[in-house]
Amino acid sequence: MELFIVGDGFEILESRVVKELGLVSFDEVLKSLDDTVINEIEKKHEKIFETLKKFAKRHTIYYVVGNHDYHILKNKNLQKALKERFEHLEILPYYYDEKTKLLVLHGNQFDVINRFSLDRKSGKVIPPLGDFIARYMMVNFDENVINFAPEEVVRDYDNVRPLLDVFHWFEYVTEIYDIGVDLVELWLKSFLTMLKTSEAKRWMRNNFPRTHWISRLFVNRFGGLEMGRILVRTVYTFRKLRRVDYLQKWARIVLKGSQKWKRFMVGYAEDLDKIDRVDILVMGHVHHFTYRIVPAPDGKKLYVNCGSWRPVLEKIGMKRKHGFHKKAELPKITMDFSNGRVEVKASITNMIGKI
């Protein structure tokens, strides 16, 4: 028996330790982390750690890192701290089994904001903009909000899905708690200021060399905040209307035999040439469970997304006045490769509460 965890389980990126490091470079964060952050996480989740420790005494845990705990892959101190706790633990950028053609990825590799890229001039690896955004907003937005908003507002705004509805979430909690500050404007101001930083500009120039100038338009001209609000709303409304699941799109590309997905494995690439065919693809990253049969030229393939342990906030109905509910999907997927065939069992438990 083997257990696969598809990343972001340790949530190092949004830990107190990383927050206290401030807006230092991504490389400095990597070098600075030690077992302190693992100790803190274990104290908050003792039961989970105890359960995993018991499992790892007799079976192997394969931990495929995500973008929120990528640090584990590159930091020897974090690896040592975890392997001291879990007897049989493998920490991997991805997992591939040549016999079963099973590929396990986190999935952030197909998310433009949360994947690594190469500097077009120097060839050096550029960290995801999503990492910098999370750390910037923790320091420049969260710390301001906590002075006049309930703790749950600070904790939960990052869990709103789709992200477009974060504006309605701020408006909703402003009414409930009678907050005398416009949280939407405060969030947008912090976000647009973030786009002026050298880190964000470098990322934009490198990933969007022909269109990065657009960001300057709504940051510096045409009303600044209002232009930013309109642009963000337009982009996310368009995505919502199209109902695009970009990971499903890439899953189909991988399963149908295209090799172009490998160019997005910057920061994770190791021996990718051995992956010639994928029959079963398992990913995470997005916060909802998915189970799809994908037809391909060489037969039927399977794509599974494990969802997330993290709760999400969703609007009830289409109007803001209906409020929000918190939903935690707890999926369980088992695969049995004995008897010359693959038997897959998938189940999901939903925990729902009104906010």
What does this structure look like?
The chain has 355 residues and is α/β, with parallel strands linked by helices. It has 2 domains: 2-112 and 255-310, no CATH class; 118-242, no CATH class. Helices cover 40% and strands 20% of the residues. The chain has 14 helices and 13 strands. The chain has a 5-stranded mixed β-sheet, covered by helices on one side. Strands 1-2-3 form a 3-stranded parallel β-sheet, covered by helices on one side. A 3-stranded antiparallel β-sheet has the order 11-12-13, with no helix packed on it. The radius of gyration is 21 Å and the shape is globular. The two termini are 39 Å apart. InterPro entries: LpxH-like, Metallo-depent_PP-like. It comes from Thermotoga neapolitana (strain ATCC 49049 / DSM 4359 / NBRC 107923 / NS-E). GO terms for molecular function: metal ion binding; UDP-2,3-diacylglucosamine hydrolase activity. This is Calcineurin-like phosphoesterase domain-containing protein.
What key phrases describe this protein's structure?
14 helices, 355 residues, 20% strand, 3-stranded parallel β-sheet, 40% helix, alpha/beta
- Classification by helices and strands: alpha/beta
Largest sheet: 5 strands, mixed
Helix percentage: 40-55%
Structural shape? globular
Strand residue percentage = 15-25%
Q: In angstroms, what is the radius of gyration?
A: 21 Å
Low-confidence parts lasting 5 or more residues at pLDDT below 50? Answer: 217-224, 238-243
SS summary, helix count? 14
Mean pLDDT: 85
End-to-end separation in angstroms reads 39 Å
**How many structural domains does the protein architecture include?**
2
The string of secondary-structure elements, in order, is EHHHHEHHEEEEEHHHHHHHHEEEEEE
Output the strand order for the largest sheet: 4-5-8-10-9
Tell me the number of strands: 13
